[in-house]
Design a protein that fits this description.
The chain is α/β, with parallel strands linked by helices and 270 residues long. The protein has one domain (8-132, 173-269): Rossmann fold, CATH 3.40.50.150. It is 26% helix and 22% strand. It is built from 7 helices and 11 strands. The strands form 2 sheets. The chain has an 8-stranded mixed sheet, with helices on both faces. Strand 2, helix 2 and strand 3 form a beta-alpha-beta unit. Helix 2 (49-66) packs across helix 3 and helix 5 crosses helix 6 (238-246). The chain starts with 7 loop residues before the first strand and ends with a helix.
Length: 270
Amino acid sequence: MDMTDRNVVYNKSWEEAEKILEDNSIDMFFCDPPYYISNNSWDKQWQTKEEFFAWTTRWIELAYKKLKQTGSIYICISWQYSGKFQEILEETGFNIQNRITWKRDKGRGSKTNFKNMNEDIWFATKDDKEHTFNIKDIMIEKEVIAPYRDENGQPKDWWENSEGKKVRLTYPGNIWIDLCVPYWSMHEVRSYAKSKREPDNKFQKHPTQKPKKLVKRCIAASSNENEVIVDFFGGSGTTAIACKELNRRYILFERDNEYCQMIETRLEKE
């Protein structure tokens, strides 16, 4: 890849990546594709599940082709087809490293079912052992229940944080409950979407936007500064914003022109 091809948002579908990206050149993919569970046109552009899975297989195979041997991919999906995505990833040649489940706060639930409050993120790599994982960059503060002190009475491996809680750093698990805020209250949504607080904003809220903190955690874990992150489904541009804040390069593909304008607005404001 030419080093001038950095921080680009293409108003194109993911299929164009075949001609734009060199094989074995990308450090990491973060993709939030259609889930095929709602009734909007984006999610229901296929007649059957089989068509949706065939389409999914094609873009995952293309990502595998463009990814470096040491690269990683993160794919968001809801529980309904999460198992099928694992199957497609493995059949493509990826090594599944983990299934991350994160707590979300969106929707009002159902009177005839349990409220859906979680989604999955599949974390997979080309090489099972040789891949980037920056554990020190994603350690999490955990409250200490029984704080120990050394022989001098000083805190042992813990401290008080800004909230006065006794905490220590711990390894992150694959259940994420610490980064979800009410969807419509996210600052990154307010930066571009019309609301009572920001009536002059141009755009409507993006319906499937992920929390920026979630995307940043994935990128921080599996890439280094100045490396290239690709998102086949740019959406509202959270991957680009996360890369900008973490000093990574980004290449986004987004076929909807209005969403591309939304991404440009966010890059200017955030």
